[in-house]
TrEMBL record, chain A:
Organism: Bradyrhizobium huanghuaihaiense
Protein name: Cytochrome bo(3) ubiquinol oxidase subunit 3
Broad class of the protein's primary localization: membrane
Function: Cytochrome bo(3) ubiquinol terminal oxidase is the component of the aerobic respiratory chain of E.coli that predominates when cells are grown at high aeration. Has proton pump activity across the membrane in addition to electron transfer, pumping 2 protons/electron.
One Gene Ontology molecular-function label: cytochrome-c oxidase activity
Record-linked Pfam families: COX3 (PF00510)
The UniProt record lists the keyword Membrane: yes
PROSITE patterns recorded: COX3 (PS50253)
Family: Belongs to the cytochrome c oxidase subunit 3 family.
Subcellular location as annotated: Cell membrane
Transmembrane regions listed in the UniProt entry: 35-57, 77-97, 104-123, 143-166, 187-210
TrEMBL record, chain B:
Keywords, sorted A to Z: Cell membrane, Electron transport, Membrane, Oxidoreductase, Transmembrane, Transmembrane helix, Transport
Membrane topology: Multi-pass membrane protein
Name of this protein: Cytochrome bo(3) ubiquinol oxidase subunit 4
Role according to the record: Cytochrome bo(3) ubiquinol terminal oxidase is the component of the aerobic respiratory chain of E.coli that predominates when cells are grown at high aeration. Has proton pump activity across the membrane in addition to electron transfer, pumping 2 protons/electron.
Protein's cellular compartments: Cell membrane
Gene Ontology terms for molecular function: cytochrome bo3 ubiquinol oxidase activity; proton transmembrane transporter activity
UniProt xrefs under InterPro entries: Cyt_c_oxidase_su4_prok (IPR005171), Cyt_o_ubiqinol_oxidase_su4 (IPR014210), Cytochrome_c_oxidase_bac_sub4 (IPR050968)
Family: Belongs to the cytochrome c oxidase bacterial subunit 4 family.
Any single Pfam family the record assigns to this protein: COX4_pro
Membrane spanning residue stretches: 27-48, 60-78, 90-111
Lineage of the species this protein comes from: Bacteria, Pseudomonadati, Pseudomonadota, Alphaproteobacteria, Hyphomicrobiales
Amino acid sequence: MSMTAAVGHAHADPHHIGVVIEHPGPASKRIVTAYGFWVFLLSDIVMFSCFFAAYAVLSGQTAGGPSGAEIFEQRNVAIETVCLLLSSFTCGMASIAADVRNRFWFYFGMAVTCVLGVIFLVIEFREFADLVARGYGPSRSAFLTSFFSLVGCHGLHVSAGVLWLLTMMAQVFAKGFRADVLRRMMCFALFWHALDIIWVGVFSVVYLLGGAP
Amino acid sequence: MSDQTHIPTGHDLAPGEEEQHSVGERILGYVVGLVLALLLTATSFFIAGTDLVWQPSIPVALIVLAIAQMGVHLVFFLHITTGPDNTNNVLALAFGLLVVFLVVGGTVWIMSHLNGNMPPMDQIMRMRT
């Protein structure tokens, strides 16, 4: 921290971008918190990349069981995708409302985000339950194991996100737009947008590429 | 130094945070991102089920569309840009992407070679019995 404060005038403009910054000092807590959370999100994405790699290797190993083209329903996946995308948008609206301290639009945006997230989870859960009921559970083949672990891991993240979302609504209700609550809200928005980015990978790689005949 | 651009005294931007904008501009940014993402998603789903394009090009097209959509999300929703106050965030992202490409690319590469060098499964079964 003290390093930033000690930067002299000679290093104030290292890239010659024409903007001279005068002794900015240690970064504010808001920036430090969000940056730390950003690093966590990147490590979470690295973890997901391992699941993606496993799926890419095992997607053909069906062991006589069903292939992706036989069990994936594009219509459901399209609905899930639209739900998550819209929820990302409403989450953005809610964080703008939090920044301008507007309670009504904050609650409204968060509530819509929550409903869309829950719709996503219900569709996914029904898809999983249907597959297991037909005997295509995660133990059927290596392909299904990798499918359930990748998509299920994303679903667990969305579930945790919904719980976090409800916590944020309760905290704003009980404590108001305090600085620490706003920091948590910013981290939640980052988390939710990152989940949507991972879902882009999931529907492209798992459902569209893996569902090709 | 009279011609220096005016910059508020806070300099770094937290990830997810925008530069100073009015509420209307911020909402417009999200709307643009949403429209672009919806267009790219619709294209992906259309390409995956169509006969109109050359079939072997479909996987490449899907991957390119997915990467484009991730870029749209990063810029319009997470506000990761190439601005000077975003350097730390971009560097962390670049390192994360490096690890992701090493893990996924390396795994697919190695495993496809292993598959290519392995005798067919029924042959292995016969060797063991």
